[in-house]
Structure formats: structure tokens, C-alpha cells
């Protein structure tokens, strides 16, 4: 008995719940957006087909896809706000710089084409949903209040019956309901429609939910890639934290002990008496020199693991590299958002390796380093006025434009290939004969 009352209570209060009104708002507001999406896709498709014999057909078709993404993103936002659909947004469209790159990216954008499919498939679902809203909510409200409308003389339906009598009331086919008992039956029917309205709308909205989940959310391969990227980001960040911890342990532990050892050996050497043999003095001097060499080598190792200067930020670290460079370096930095530690480390070692390359192999008299953050990315541009002729073989590792690298005259670019590829960065080299050589590196701010 209690469960029956619970069901009855749920049914009776369904029309006044927030969910019912949110789903109604989604259907009503979503219909014009659906019409806009269909018009956009069909117009773009017809224009592309009409211009297929010209050079504009394919680019127009490729540019159709990002626009479909935008409209689908609006619909996905509505579903999140009104329906509570917490679907992860697909990966953003990042085709890369250049007109032809954008065209190729648009034609190959699977997520964008799925958005196009959703915009077209949503039309019949939206039509069905709007029809259900009209039949249940609209007609239910009209029927519920019809006795009042009849009393006020508004919204009247008139018919002439078989006897030639003009009758005014609520007309269903050939049935005329114009007496007060009959009008109360109409009102009861309207109340029944309003009770059924939330459930009917919820059923048709479920079709749209399924479309959104299958076409606007990430597919299995995209989700798998996103999971792998998150796992890789955790691994990269964890590796950076581990290297920083090792650097601090070496600096505060082993290096401090070696310094103390060197000081003790110096003190022992200074306290030796005149009767100490030359062999003993030579052994102490050799031990002291070895301790100094070990400290120097350990400091080099520590800087190679994680340069302490990075604790002050990538701008300060690159400024230190520029100051230490054997050739003059013009440095310009414009960093407003600090990248994560892993990105800073990769950027630092890239600049360090490239400045070393310039000093050793380019024959340049001057170098330039520009560090900026366009579009929420970390962009590095390293150039010199050397002899040029450097080459970087073009291949792809992951999403990076990298491969087995070679630089005429010797290089460490293979290490840069591995470093940049770990975070989906890109590296491009332009080095015509007689120069100048320009290397651009694009990295995300976060792993």
C-alpha cells in the first residue's frame, strides 16, 4: 500500500518538478537550434557541392566541420545544464598552423564529422519532441482551462450539427462537448494529459540523450587516447618530481658530504708535521683533488638532472643559459602563466642543447631566443646568423612533427625529438644554405 501511495505521489507531482520543466525548456529551446544546425549543414554541403569544380569546394567543406563542432558544443552545453548530461567534451580542434593544414585537419576531423551527423539526426528527434510537447503540455493546458475559456467566451469552437443548430464548445471530430458536465470531462482529460506530459517528454528526450552520448561525446578510441594522455601526463609529472627529489638529495646529501670530505682533507694536510713523508702528503693531495673533481662532476650531474635555477621559473633559467652562452644571445621573454615543472624542464634542455649546437657548429656570431605564450601554449623560437644548412628529417612520433634528426656538423637533436614528443609538442627547423637557422618549438603549458 505504501509503495502505491509513493507511485501516486510521484505521478501527481511530476508536472511541477524541476526536471519536468528543464526537459520542457530543453525541447522548446532546442528546436530552433536544431533548425539552425540543419540549415548550416545543408547550406554548407550544397555550396561545397556547387563549388566542387572550383578550388573553393574542398576548403569550404573542410571549414564546415569546425562550425558544426561549435553548434554541437552549444547543444552539449544545454544538455549539461538542463538535462544533467555530464558527458566529457571531445578533444578540441587543433589542426596546426597554416591554411592547408587547417583544410586537411578539417577533412580528417572525426569528431567534427560526428557533430555534423548529430545536427542532421537531431531534426526528426526534435520534431517528434516538439509534437509530444504540443499534444501533452499545450493541449493539456488548453483542455484543463477550457471551462474557464468557455465561460469567458474565448477560444470557442463552432459547428453546425445535423439538425442545423449552431453549437459552440470543445469539438473532437463530430463530437461536441458544450454542456458543463461535458466541459468538466474535457478539463479532467487536460489534467490527465498534464500528468502524462513529463513522462512522454522524458521518453522522447531519452532519444536525444542517446544521440548526444553516441555522437557528441568522445568515442572509444578518443576516450582511450585521452586516458593514455592522462596516464602519460601523470608519468611525466611523476618523473619530473622524482628527478627534482634526486637532485635535492644529491645536492643536500652527497654533495655536502663531499664538500665536508674535501675540507677535512685540507685540514689534515695543513696539520701534518714536518716529519710526514712525501708519499703521505702526495696521497692526501691526490685525495683532496679527487674530492674536488667529484664535487665538480656531481654538480654537472645535478644540473643535468634538474637545474636548480628552474625553481625560479623558465624565464630566469633561460636567462642564465643566455648569460653563459659563448656567443651573444638576444633574449626576449613574455610569460604570463607559469608552465608545469615537466614542461619547464623540457623547454630548458631544448634551449640549452640548441645554444650549444649554435656555439659549436653554426659559425654564428649572434643568436636570438624568443619565449612567448600565444594561444595558451609555450612557444620558443631560437635562431642564429650562422652558415645554415642544418636538416631535420621529417617524420612523426605521436603527434609531434619529429623523427630521426640529423644536423650537419654534429647535433643533439635526437634528444630533443624524444623530449618534445613526450608531451605532444612540435619542433620545426628552417635552415637554408647560408642561413639563418630558425628552430621553433611549441609545447603545452601543462602535461
TrEMBL record:
Coiled coil: none annotated. It holds the Pfam family HisKA_3. Residues 244-310 form the Signal transduction histidine kinase subgroup 3 dimerisation and phosphoacceptor domain. Residues 348-446 form the Histidine kinase/HSP90-like ATPase domain. GO terms for molecular function: kinase activity. SUPFAM superfamilies: ATPase domain of HSP90 chaperone/DNA topoisomerase II/histidine kinase. The keyword Phosphoprotein applies. Keywords: ATP-binding, Kinase, Membrane, Nucleotide-binding, Phosphoprotein, Transferase, Transmembrane, Transmembrane helix, Two-component regulatory system. It catalyses: ATP + protein L-histidine = ADP + protein N-phospho-L-histidine. Residues 26-216 form the Putative sensor domain. It comes from the Bacteria. The chain crosses the membrane at residues 21-40, 46-65, 118-142, 183-205. Its EC number is 2.7.13.3. This is histidine kinase.
